[in-house]
Amino acid sequence: MPDPKTGELRGNRNLKRLDRITQTKQEEETARSLELGLEAADSINDRSISLFSRGHQPAFAGINTFMKSPYCEDIRNVGDYEAAFVGIPFDTGTTYRPGARFGPQAVRQISALYDGFSVDGAVDLHEELDLCDAGDIFVIPGNIEKTFDQVTKAVSYIYTSGAFPVLMGGDHSLGYPNVRGIAPHIDGNVGIIHIDRHIDMQEMDMDERMHTTPWFWTSNGHNHEGQDVSTSHHSHSHMHDVGLNNCPPKNLVQMGIGGWYGSRPGSEVARERGSSVLTMTDVEELGIKKAAEVALDLAWKDAKAVYLSFDIDSIDPGFAPGTGSPEPGGFLPREALELVRLIAREGLCGMEVVEVAPPYDVNQNTSQLACRVVLDVLGTLVTEGKLGHRSAVTKKE
Asked: Which of 24, 71, 280, 374 could form a disulfide with 258 if both were Cys (CB 3.0 to 4.6 A apart)?
């Protein structure tokens, strides 16, 4: 949109801002590539090219980390970074099509396409954010509860290190242990914005906590009057916890819900506890901007932090077929990306993207959209000053 005073196009304004960002990281990467990958053959005119690929180029070469960011092999050093991509390759909680355990690797692979430079967002992630790939959490296939314990401890470690957790599933059962790794460290209530086609709020599914149950357990310390409802736990003696006391249902907002599958048991819980459900029809009628405004008001009311949970099946399967429980009628990609940018503007304590199942994908479309959700959130957090170090790498006008 042109500036009302100068008439200058937004894209041109963004290009000017991007021109003021240093290229220090790029220069360091070139020097490192030449040192570790040796100098190129004599016939190569561009002497920044190395003999062995050790940087971002070629996009199709090299050993994948997310965005080809540094691999934090010694997890004790994760606090040296401002954000950490963490894979959680677990899909034992799926109730229809498995395959989301391969999601983190697929997103890493397609992320090599991107160089972190966005004219749209006027951001250069590689210069403005210290991002690492922390690898994958060691999950226990076939054992949901032990995996939940592993995930919670790992997420807690990342969060308390000071790195912003970017959690890549895996199926949506992980929503509960992911939030359980963050919420106890926040002095106050935590709001949750959950973008999905399915409500995922029933107590149990086939006698276990599955990808249809995370928000029941996250909000299980409350009902709409703030009373304890932990008695629902009494018949499941193999579980050792009953919910999170600072994740009240009044701060849980679920967006894009609809379709014909899997929402009845969870809908009853949502109604009883008083959480907020914006169906896909609600979002259509309100429009993306107003829907985001409503969600932010509800999630942030009397809360100290907000967590974003993005299920890739919220995007119409015509665009994102690689998922376990596809449901037509969801968001268009442009709508979904606008929505997460609007939500991220207010700041987040963590984020997850779940249910990317590469065995059902076409041309890596689903993995690429998952990658874009992460990039658009991180880019927005940087531009809004919620994450990164923009001022340190930007030259004054």
From this structure: 280
Q: What is the pTM of this model?
A: 0.92
Domain 56-229+245-389 part of CATH 2.30.110.10: no
Count Cβ atoms below 10 Å from residue 63 Cβ, excluding itself.
10
Question: Can you name the residues that pair with 331 across neighbouring β-strands?
Answer: 315
Residues with Cβ within 8 Å of residue 271, at least 6 apart in sequence: none
Q: What is the 3-state secondary structure (H, E, C) of 6-40?
A: CCCCHHHHHHHHHHCECCHHHHHHHHHHHHHHCEC
Q: Alpha carbon of 13 to those of 17, 126, 157, 393, 396: distances in Å?
A: 6, 20, 40, 18, 15
Q: Tokens in use for 58?
A: 């070629």
Walk across the sheet containing 83-88 and list its strands. 131-136, 83-88, 164-169, 350-354, 303-311, 189-195, 252-257, 276-279
310 neighbors 195 (Cβ within 8 angstroms): yes
Residues in the chain: 397
Tokens of 137: 């959490």
Question: Which DSSP state fits 45?
Answer: S
- Two tokens, residue 116: 């972190």
State the Cα–Cα distance between residues 380 and 20, nearest whole angstrom. Answer: 18
Q: What are phi and psi of 360, to 5 degrees?
A: -110, 10
The angle subtended at Cα 166 by Cα 164 and Cα 167, nearest 5°, is 135
Radius of gyration of the chain (CA): 21
What pairing do the DSSP bridges indicate for beta strands 123-124 and 117-118?
Answer: antiparallel
Note the Cα 393 to chain centre separation in Å: 25
DSSP-based helix, strand, coil % in the chain, nearest 5: 40, 15, 45
Residue ranges of the chain with per-residue pLDDT less than 70: 1, 222-242
User: Cα–Cα distance between 29 and 161 in angstroms, integer?
Assistant: 25
Name the residue ranges covered by the structural domains of the chain: 9-55, 56-229+245-389
Any alpha helices (H) in the chain, and if so which ranges?
10-19, 24-37, 103-111, 125-128, 144-161, 175-180, 214-218, 264-273, 280-286, 288-300, 333-344, 365-383
